[in-house]
Amino acid sequence: MSKIESKIQEKVMSFLFRGKELFKPLNTGHIDERVSCVREYVANIYFYKKDEHRIMIDAGYNYDRLAEKMKWLDIDPKDIREILITHQDTDHVGAIEKGSDELFRESTIYIGKIENEYLEGRKKRRVFDGLVKLPQVHIENKKVLVDDGEVFYIGNIKIEAFLVPGHTWGHLVYLIDDAYLFTGDTISFGPDGGYAFLNILAEDKKLQVKSLKKLEETLRRRNLKLKIITGHTGWTDDIDFAFSHTDEVCNGLKRKPKVHDPKAPYDGYDEEDDTEDKARNLLL
Fold first, then answer.
1. Alpha-carbon distance 259 to 234, whole Å?
2. Where does the record place the Metallo-beta-lactamase domain (predicted)?
3. Torsion of CA 172, 155, 158, 73, to 10 degrees
């Protein structure tokens, strides 16, 4: 997606979701000593550091302030050698799309085998109950294709991938070091807990719910102490909160008070509150 197209999407999405109270992104900063994030409008990208090795989780929009905000966190784009991609929507891969600033052109991306079919044109990304077909995303980075359930290591960082189809057909979530779950667009946190992500952007809403329940069952069996980190609505360390409404999909069209969070910004594309001072001095 070009810079011009990104700006158009910014204006359209700002108009569509203004006042809907659906997106509650974290500001740029640190969750803890291992995880930091950059806010790009309504989306977050994340960085995970262990033993001096830092990886990136998702690549956000084609966003012209990414290098600036990474500097707030003392992160050099050149040091990012690996990027985990949950799914190929342009608010999660924009910084590695052809036509971006190419901050990460030397980075290797990890993406699910099924999700890669979008990138190769064998699947078409559809939203709004299949009525709208999105353009193909083009990425030229070296790719490593990941299977459901696969466990792999980057440096000393242990990563396990789980397939959670529904939002897209090949969406993955990543469990890192058995302590951090990066969920991309599988879970949306409302004021009273987690729901399956936005109905209007799902390939298959019923499958979305089924996948989320399966993920919950897998995690509860392991009895892990987790930080569950979403792409658009912050994080929690309360698994009961995170999976409290997994049988429901967040409805982006109807005004359901328990889904819509009154603490969410009126316009998620207004970043006035996202500052370097806060990024350096406040934990998220």
1. 14
2. 42-232
3. -70
Of 14, 19, 42, 12, which Cα lies nearest the Cα of 260?
19
The range of the structural domain enclosing residue 262 comes to 17-266
DSSP assignment letter at 180: E
Has this prediction a pTM greater than 0.85?
yes
Within 13 A of 20's CA, how many CA atoms are on the CB side? 17
Domain total in the chain: 1
Provide the residue type at 203 as one letter. E
User: Which residue type is seen at 156?
Assistant: N
> Strands 35-40 and 29-30, how do they pair?
antiparallel
Torsion of CA 66, 6, 46, 174, to 10 degrees: -150
pLDDT tens-digit readout, 168-216:
999 999 999 999 999 999 999 999 999 999 999 999 999 999 999 999 9
β-pair type (180-182, 172-176) = antiparallel
